[in-house]
Structure formats: structure tokens, C-alpha cells
Amino acid sequence: MRVHRLSLLLLALAAAGCTTVHTDRWSYQEPLPVNQTELFQTFGLPDAIRREQGSPNRWLRYDYSQIRGMTFGARYLALALILGRQHRAFDRLWVHVTTDGRVLEWQPGRSTPQLRYRLWPFGD
Amino acid sequence: MTESAWPRRVAFLGVLLLSAPLGCAFERVVINEGVRSLDPGNIVVGRTDHLGVLRELGLPPPEFPEEVGTRGVARDYLRYGVFESRCFRIGFEQVLLISPFRWCTRFRPYELGVAFDERGLVTGVYEMHRDGVWPPFRGEDDLPPPVVRALQGSMQ
Fold first, then answer.
1. Is the pLDDT of residue B62 over 50?
2. Is B117 an 8 Å CB contact of chain A?
3. pLDDT(B81) > 90
4. For testing the chain B interface, which of A9, A13, A29, A40 should be mutated: the one with the most B CBs within 10 Å?
5. What is the ipTM of this complex?
């Protein structure tokens, strides 16, 4: 009976499930789009557009989010033990575009690559 | 560990493996499906203003119902998006293990965007179609780029 309980516990630990959620992605890749047409064809429509004060130029905003994590646990009669941890990363890319559609500047957040998957749920 | 314990353990593992397909779940949620039927045909570049677009298409619907009425209307760009989430899950609840094994993707399969100039007049109406990750183990890198076309105005 003790062996059975031990194997149940080991299986519960081994059955670590991973959870991943991500939204539309953009990636900082070469070559970068040089005009708005290429930008739309590569990354799609922006999440928002902001106009500069006193300038006809625009800033196009692209958002990206990613969630990774894991949960595992076991149930025995009315008792349940569940351990879980999630990591979330949000990134935002701003692209400066002129009125005639030329891309002037890029401001990538580059925070998404910092998201690392960690199996241990209690921190580093 | 006795020799007689092994067949029992193998049987238990077998039950675990066999029960996994029984616990598979595919979930698909589509939000703002009605956006696909919006008709921007009466919007004219350089003539229709911000208020005219709102009269024609209504307020841009939020991604989550709880956001209704909590956000201001953007001045430079209105986004009417269909949001979709697809999830795949494996559960071992039959053998008392809680193991979500959950893979989800959220994306915008269709979107209508209206851009304005500094005077508040429409400069372009665009629509976008985008594919999502499916089946669940397909990589994001395998996705084709989004298809964007200008319904009014130019892509520039």
C-alpha cells in the first residue's frame, strides 16, 4: 500500500503540465520593413496609432504577450494539492512612419526574450 | 521492491496512458464574430470624419466583455477585431492526477482598421486576415504572414 501511495505521488510530480498562452506575435527580424505597406504585410495591422504633437508623422504600436507556466497536483478523496506558477511577458514595438508611408525609426521593447520557462514553481 | 509489484505498476502506468486520450479537450472561443459583417462601403477617404465612422460602424468592440464602457475611443485609429482563442488540454482526472497540460493561442483572425489624419478625416480603411496556431504543437514560426488589404485609400 505504501508503494502504491509513493508511486501515486511520484506520478503526480512527474505529470507536471505546462501551460502556454501567446497572442499575435511580431518578431524583430532582418530585413526590417522600410515602408508601411511592407510593415502591414509583415506584422499586420497595428494595435494602435498615435500622432505626434505638431507633426503629421505617426507612431504605430504593436503589442505581444506571452504566458508560460506549469501546474501539477494530485487529488485524493476530498483533498487536492495543486502547485502552479505562471510567467507573463509583454512586449511593445513602436514604429515611426511618415505621412508618405516611410519607416523612420523602430523602438522595440525586447522584453519577451527575457521570459524563461522555469519548472520549479517556488522561484529561482 | 518485490517482483510481484512490477506487473501492478505496469498496469497502473498503462491505465494512466490509456486514460490520457479520454481526458483530451479542445476549446475554441470566438469573440465579436459580428465584426465580419460590418460594411465600411459608405466610408469615403478624405470626406468621412471620426463621428461618421462611429455612426456607420459603431464603437469598436473590446476583446473582453468586462471592458465595455471602460475605455475611451481612440482618435487616430479605430480597430474592430474578431478575437479567437484555441486551447488543447490533456487531463488525468480519471486517475486522480491534476495535470492541465494546456496549450493556448489567442489571435485576431479578422480585423477592420480605420485610420484618421490630424483633421479627423479618414485616410484609409484596412482589413486583415490572420491564421492561428493549430494543431497545438504547430510552431508560431510556421504561420503564414497576415493578409492585409486596403478597402479604402492606399496602404501607404
1. yes
2. yes
3. yes
4. A40
5. 0.74
